[in-house]
Design brief:
With 81 residues, the protein is mainly alpha-helical. The protein has 2 helices and no strands. The protein has a domain of 36 residues.
Amino acid sequence: MTLFSPLRIALAVAALLSIVSPAQAYLDPGTGSMIISAVIGVAAALGLGLRMFWYRVVGLFRGTNGNSRPGEAESAPPAKE
């Protein structure tokens, strides 16, 4: 067994993390709303990412290129003179 084996490193990290010390921290009432807004922001970001991914998957099956955005026209209509 070597000096820096993965098992020894894991045991050392587990031993250091198991030492408990008092935090003596104060959480004010605004902390709850901050956590809620962070959760809502993460949910919105995940929803947007999934939506963008979904449009790419649907575009693959429809045979369209991935350069156009949803709701955009493929080509501009002819200009009226």
